[in-house]
Amino acid sequence: MSKPRRTGPPPPDGLVIVDKPAGLTSHDVVGRMRRIAGTRKVGHAGTLDPMATGALVIGVEKATRLLGHLALTEKTYEATIRLGQSTVTDDAEGEVTATASASGVPREDLDKGIAALTGAIMQVPSKVSAIKVDGKRSYARVREGEDVELAARPVTVSRFDVHDVRHEGELLDLDVTVTCSSGTYIRALARDLGAGLGVGGHLTMLRRTAVGPYTIDRARTLEQLEESFAVLPIADAAAAAFPRRDVTAEEARLVAHGGRLAGAGQEGGPVAVFGPDGAFLALVEEKNGQAKPIAVFVG
Q1: Which residues does the annotation mark as catalytic?
Q2: What is the largest CA-CA distance in the chain?
Q3: pTM greater than the 0.85 cutoff
Q4: Distances (CA, A) of 1 to 20, 25, 179, 221, 226
Q5: 3-state DSSP: the chain helix, strand, coil percent, rounded to 5?
Q6: Domains along the chain?
Q7: Of the candidates 270, 269, 295, 291, which has an alpha carbon nearest to the alpha carbon of residue 282?
Q8: What is the rounded CA–CA span in Å between residue 61 and residue 63?
Q9: Ranges for the Pseudouridine synthase II N-terminal domain (predicted)?
Q10: Which of 54, 123, 208, 255 is 20 to 30 Å from the Cα of 216, by its Cα?
Q11: 12 exposed, middle or buried (CB, 10 Å; 0-12, 13-18, 19+)?
Q12: How far does CA 11 lie from the centroid of its chain?
């Protein structure tokens, strides 16, 4: 039985890295976190499929405004790919659509197939992704029996390592680590690896171990959070994700009221501004010699 909703003063502003269990959607986790934290001001970044487990970034209170600015552009996963079976969803939750013996796939061909899917590649997302097609989610169209065709898009797979190869009868299971850009579908890597080898493939396990600067060693399960709720303070979360700028007391007062600061040579993306007391004040973007606040977190 779940515990009653947390009561008392509002929770502190910050991020929670949740170790998401299998079977829950990211939205389900947000619902649980609202009850645990005792606030409606909860959001998430970097969605995980229900089958997947691992690091899910949750924002609480003012940190929900931080989520849209986080550059969670690189993610790392531990996964198991099964060669010899294709499924309608490219993972173990879908119906098997084709089978072939993968027991004779040479390691050399396997390595070549993985090399072809490493680096800057064009990837066709899984048909059961949340990508919208004419205003409707692709997965919803597939569930209604439509044959959806999605366009290939550029992604980067910077790491695709095989740690173990296991024979399961005529099937071949690969334990892998993948580090990739945001928007990469690990299910599609499994599908395309199997297709390239002529035997088909799908994903049977997926666990995210890092999303941007936030790693699984910082994560806590929902049960642990039920017992003892705590956040990564918003100042620490911002310092981990953005370049830092420390300002004087006068500059702190200016930026707290939405004023612009003189440029500091930090163009190229959001910069976290901290006051002389170490408090996180705002995110600014620098252009043409001025740093303009894009989100203020004090006052």
Answers
A1: 49
A2: 70
A3: yes
A4: 18, 20, 37, 16, 11
A5: 25, 40, 40
A6: 14-72+212-233 (3.30.2350.10), 77-205 (3.30.2350.10), 242-296 (2.30.130.10)
A7: 295
A8: 5
A9: 34-186
A10: 123
A11: middle
A12: 24
Q: With contact defined as beta carbons under 8 Å apart, do 288 and 265 qualify? A: no
The backbone torsions φ and ψ at residue 185, rounded to the nearest 5 degrees and listed phi first, read -105, 115
The pLDDT tens digits for 58-87 are 999 999 999 989 878 899 999 999 999 999
Helix (H, G, I), strand (E, B) or coil at 285: strand
Q: How many residues does the chain have?
A: 299
Q: Which residues of 74-98 are buried (b: 16+ CB within 10 A; e: fewer)?
A: bbbbbbbbbbbbbbbbbbbbbeeee
Q: Which residue, among 89, 69, 78, has the nearest Cα to 285 in the 3D structure?
A: 69
